[in-house]
Design brief:
Helix content is 54%, strand content 18%. The protein is of the alpha+beta class. Among the domains are: 106 residues, 2-Layer Sandwich (Beta-Lactamase), CATH 3.30.450; 142 residues, Histidine kinase-like ATPase, C-terminal domain (Heat Shock Protein 90, 2-Layer Sandwich). The strands form 3 sheets. The protein has a 5-stranded antiparallel beta sheet, sandwiched between helices. A hairpin with a 5-residue loop joins strand 4 and strand 5. Helix 9 runs antiparallel to helix 10. The longest helix has 91 residues.
Length: 614
């Protein structure tokens, strides 16, 4: 009997240990995967921050073309200089900004450089920008003859008619403090090495200053990953560590997470020693090992105790265990002897008490678990409501910012330009007897007045005051006059009475502004691309919804082709229609486009009405 008990206990222990081993193996592997995924997410977040900086500075270069001031043939460089100065301020182009014509000749730089005639067409990135007609961000490039390391950010330069006349470019110092600050501000453990690497494997920025502009470890391998836009996590060796950091020239085993950037041909490498990455999983292994040893020791002691207590009358023990099996945990085992069966009886009583305790604790834990689930559910619902509120606040903030820009342009910039015009008048009177011609001063004054009128038009475009002052129907009519009538395009506007009366509220201001933007996008598209002679706009409203119909007799198009092109190409074709569809979707409405080449276009928008805001 004693051998049978020991055998059964040993088999049970082995089964439990095997189960614990399998479970612990899964937990350890999951811990390792989580650690690696955390490093890759960290590298991706750093890459997204750098992408954001590059994108915002690309916008500054694009704004040079959008300003409408670039003209290489008028021999007047003041507008171009002002555009370059505006793009340079608060940018990352620490080494300057330049304009280049289609032949590669640098025609203007800011800050000004006395370098004489410079031609950059031999730089491959310049040629790619002109050939591919899209923005290009370079790797680290060594400029001849100065041998200076530079990163080029290049965009095609367009004149006021939209024709490409050259390249607008910015030069970034590879050791730019913005990149270094992003890397060094990232929370990382001791021994972590974070680097920004270009597609040739050259370190652009690093948390170790000495490694900047050096070849990274595994440069060819990382260059291939950047070319393929592939993110990985794997094991590598840190080969370029100074000798005092370790003895004998041994290489350290590291875990590397590598994430590529979406805009630039670069990647972010996060490397940490393996012992740091796998520290949590190593601790788990030790804990499971110690628990297994403790369990084995406890099981052995239990087997010995059971084997010694078998001699007592089996019937009493059997009866007591049957009661326990039926759930009766209140009665003790009726064995009072001090021999082996007495010890067994005490063990059964102990087991009974612990089982009752564990059952009670399990019931309490189940109640607590149900409460936690309810709390998490309420928290998730609250997070969802907060997210919806945050989205509304973002949209409101965007519109408030447009109002602020318009107000600042009106109150400050326009007044400054007017004062400049008065100064030029005074200068004209003062210089009449000198060699400087008064007509030149008058001409400068006229240019200033043109700038003032342009800024005023910008203010109106940012936030048309007619929308707030005269109501929705008047704002739409102003929009048609501005974009269609000025181009001799006939229009016909039909609006229900609720749209005509500015004092009668059909919808809240936020909905009204979104509807105005939808019509504005459609009208601008017609004026620019449709080649239409006549346009009809109908605004209908009912108790439950709003209907907008925009019809033109222009050249028409294939809607499916346009949407497919906007989704798969980098040009701006179809982005206006995508913007309309997104705004309609935000209003929970429906949009239909009926058009085909040569047959005009009909855009139908149906928006459900919601209660007006208080």
């Amino acid at each position: 009997m004693q051998k049978r008990i020991i055998f059964l206990v040993v088999v049970s222990v082995l089964i439990i240990l095997a189960s614990v081993g399998i479970i612990s193996n899964f937990i350890v592997r999951d811990s390792i995967k989580h650690s690696l995924k955390h490093r890759l997410v960290l590298a991706s977040i750093i890459g997204e921050n750098i992408d954001y900086i590059i994108e915002s500075n690309l916008t500054r270069l694009h704004d040079i073309s959008l300003s409408g001031r670039v003209d290489f043939t008028d021999n007047d460089w003041e507008p171009e200089k002002r555009a370059l100065r505006t793009a340079y301020e608060y940018s990352i182009f620490t080494d300057g900004i330049f304009l280049m014509d289609k032949l590669g000749n640098v025609v203007l730089t800011y800050p000004h450089r006395d370098e004489g005639a410079v031609n950059l067409l031999s730089i491959p990135y310049i040629g790619r920008t002109l050939t591919e007609k899209r923005p290009v961000i370079s790797d680290i490039y060594k400029v001849s003859p100065t041998r200076k390391n530079v990163i080029f950010v290049l965009v095609p330069l367009k004149d006021k008619d939209g024709e490409i006349i050259g390249v607008a470019g910015g030069e970034i110092n590879p050791a730019n403090y913005m990149f270094t600050d992003i890397l060094k501000s990232t929370p990382a453990g001791e021994g972590t090495l974070i680097e920004l690497i270009d597609s040739h494997g050259i370190v652009i920025s690093s948390t170790e200053q000495a490694r900047i502009l050096t070849n990274s470890d595994h440069d060819k391998f990382l260059g291939n990953l950047i070319t393929q836009k592939k993110n990985i996590v794997g094991t590598c060796h840190r080969c370029h560590i100074e000798e005092e950091e370790f003895s004998g020239g041994d290489r350290t085993d590291d875990m590397m997470a590598f994430a590529t950037l979406s805009l630039a041909p670069w990647g972010v490498s996060v490397r940490e020693p393996q012992e740091v990455v796998f520290a949590p999983s190593t601790t788990l292994k030790k804990v499971f090992t110690i628990l297994s040893l403790i369990y084995i020791a406890t099981a052995v002691l239990l087997a010995v105790g059971l084997s010694k207590s078998i001699v007592r009358p089996i019937r009493l023990i059997t009866a007591a265990t049957k009661k326990i099996a039926r759930g009766n945990l209140s009665e003790t085992v009726a064995v009072t002897s001090t021999d082996e069966f007495g010890i067994l009886a005490d063990s059964v009583n102990t087991m009974r008490l612990k089982l009752a305790k564990y059952l009670s604790a399990l019931q309490i834990y189940n109640v607590q678990l149900e409460g936690r689930v309810m709390d998490r559910t309420r928290e998730l619902q609250q997070r969802k409501r907060q997210l919806a509120t945050l989205l509304d606040e973002v949209i409101k903030t965007q519109e408030d910012e447009r109002k602020r820009i318009a107000r600042e342009l009106h109150d400050e910039t326009s007044q400054s330009l007017a004062a400049l015009g008065m100064s030029l008048d005074i200068a004209t009177i003062a210089l009449r007897e000198n060699s400087l011609s008064p007509e030149m001063i008058v001409e400068q004054k006229e240019r200033v007045e043109q700038l003032v009128r342009g800024i005023n038009r910008l203010i109106v475009d940012l936030r048309p005051p007619v929308l707030d002052d005269l109501g929705f129907e008047s704002a739409v009519r102003w929009l048609l006059e501005r974009h269609l009538a000025s181009k001799d395009i006939k229009y016909h506007l039909i609006a229900c009475d609720k749209f005509k009366n500015p004092d009668e509220t059909v919808f809240n201001k936020k909905t009204g502004l979104r509807l105005f933007r939808i019509i504005q996008e459609a009208v601008i598209n017609i004026s620019k691309h449709a080649d239409a002679k006549a346009v009809s706009i109908t605004l209908n409203c009912s108790e439950t919804n709003l209907e907008i119909d925009i019809i033109d007799d222009g050249m028409g198009f294939d809607p499916e082709e346009i949407f497919a092109s906007a989704s798969t190409t980098d040009d701006n074709k179809g982005f206006g229609l995508l913007g309309i569809r997104e705004r309609v979707s935000n209003l929970e409405g429906e949009m239909n486009i009926y058009s085909k080449p040569g047959a005009g276009t009909h855009i139908s928008v149906n928006i459900p009405l919601s209660p007006v805001d208080a």
